[in-house]
Amino acid sequence: MMAQIEREAMEYDVVIIGAGPAGLSAAIRLKQLDADLSVVVLEKGSEVGAHILSGAVLDTCGLDRLMPDWKQRGAPVSTRVARDNFYMLGEAGSLRIPNFLMPPLMSNHGKYIVSMANVCRWMAEQAEAMGVEIFAGMSCSELVYAEDGSVKGVVAGEFGKTADGTPGPNYEPGMELHGKYVFLSEGVRGSLSKQAIARFDLQKGHDVQKFGLGMKEIWEIDPAKHRLGTVTHTMGWPLGGNAGGGSFVYHIENNQVYVGFVVHLNYKNPHLYPYMEFQRFKHHPMIEELLRGGKRVAYGARAISEGGWQSIPTVAFPGGALLGCSAGLVNVPRIKGNHNAMLSGIEAAEAAQAAIAKGRSGDTLTEYDTALRNGAIGKDLRQVRNVKPLWSRFGLLVSLKLGGIDMWTNNLFGFSLLGTLRHGKSDAESTGLAADYAPIDYPKPDGKISFDRLTNVSFSMTNHEESQPPHLHLTDPSIPIAVNLPKYDEPAQRYCPAGVYEVVTEAGKDPRFVINFQNCVHCKTCDIKDPSQNITWTVPQGGDGPNYPNM
What we know:
It is built from 15 helices and 24 strands. With 551 residues, it is α+β, with helices and mostly antiparallel strands. The chain is globular and about 65 Å long. The two termini are 41 Å apart.
């Protein structure tokens, strides 16, 4: 029945999926190059910025190239980094690592602490003023293919399916939006990007992608403790040898701080509970002292691409391109990706505009792939390409030394003594058996500094229409209980930062696997970390999910 649905179609020169920094940069650059191009941006969030979550200390090189007059235009980029600290934490103390030991690329001086959600809202205003059409609340559920197999568009705005997936009484089939080129800038592990990577075998010849889980809270703190422009990063406790990762604390305007925690998803111990590691981190004396007497005002989470240079897939395919985090352009040691997202949007736009001017459409923009790898993005990521695999192989302390040396040689001489190391296993394959690891005893949240998961999710303003089909699909519904529970103690109960997955045990009954999709904050960790690769994240109907105010 669903295959026979007829939809109206709209034609554009370029269709862009996702109103993040990459997609909006592409839209703006296209209009700068040719004001007559028809460009549309489709955003699944209820508004632009609603699904944007980032640290974020922004390197403005991408913004400088896109709009050199961004200050005069009133960009919400004003809190310049004043102090840049890096600490190694133990359970009760800390050791500051001197800045002079860090390669120059690690310095945050001259950068800005921003809300990327607000930066994207501002970028959307600039794009619309140039004639870009932006539609929020428009989930893109399918790729549309031409007869030759190239991507020619997407299905957007499908609403009103019932829980079993059939059309309900208020069903709206949505529309097909066609373009000469389709840009996928969905963020990490986007559902359409994942399909395109598989269909066109874009990962062939490249290393596996690696990921982290980033969790973030916004706090209002005692003004006496606030230090505007201070940036602090930490490593070590509480993760220790259980997992790679670290934290950030950024002092922004209005006596607020961003408090974030990242756990690399290649951890082996399936008993690890990333969210509770974050909550435990806040009880470190240095952090608890800062937060004591303050209040948490927002929470969110998202996956982070961490594979770097060697894991970037081929970014151009027939009819389209991967932009930003869909291509995996985060610089892990710098904890920055927004500048590369913007640069990728610019490069893709320039390749597409030149192709359209020559009468091309629906072909492969190889010029974009070349420009991404040989330009500023490639240079940024090549210098740090061995940091993540070193950490995965040797742990924190050894990787700090070897990774530091490797970054210095790349910075000073333009080459690495180590060549290019490979990552090895995927994050799902890295998960060990529950019987081989000891369970971890986590302290109960105190409700003042640390919080239970569901209470925190309420601070993400997440909402999903409950009558729609769950957007989290199990390939085999039996696997969570029959396979994952006995082998891995079903880690979905713990790796999800929103409490979506539960194993419910009732007296006299077999355990049940429950999916509370209404809680989902769209981080996509389940799609990445499930050891059986049995969970597929897809888009819910448009406008659903978190509603981040200024993440």
